[in-house]
Known about the structure:
Layout: H1 2-11, H2 21-31, H3 35-49, H4 69-74, H5 77-88, H6 94-105, H7 114-127, H8 134-144
Amino acid sequence: MADVIAFLIKHFYDLDACPPPSxxxxxxEDIGFNDIEINQALMLLEVxxxxxxxSETQYHRDAIRVYCEExxxxxxxxxISLLYLLDDAEAINGExxxxxxxxxxxLPPEEITVDMxxxxxxxxxxxxxxxxxxxIGAELMMALHGKAVMH
Length: 151
């Protein structure tokens, strides 16, 4: 799925620039992505397209995210640390973090990695047309090319 997300981010300015799901699915299939990856990516795009924007009054900077036992069992510590870093640097907001956490928990355990968390973070930021601090944005983009180094 990371390859499909990387393709979308590289080839479409934002979520609004993507073709309708049926057309996009056909484009992705013609390129050679498998059906499972395409369906996972299209499902994520649908969720993102239907998410209401979070206003600043709905998200409190001083809130602390406590992970439940199920999340602690399924999410590696380096993934949780990455999400904390992104949240602390104000690169993502609470809603965006929760999208990433939820998406990660629906992946097979072997796919829950720091790089996948970075790719999903890029997806949600791309869909929300969010700005990123330069150093964090560069590090997240490296995950698309398989050269990520930040953990």
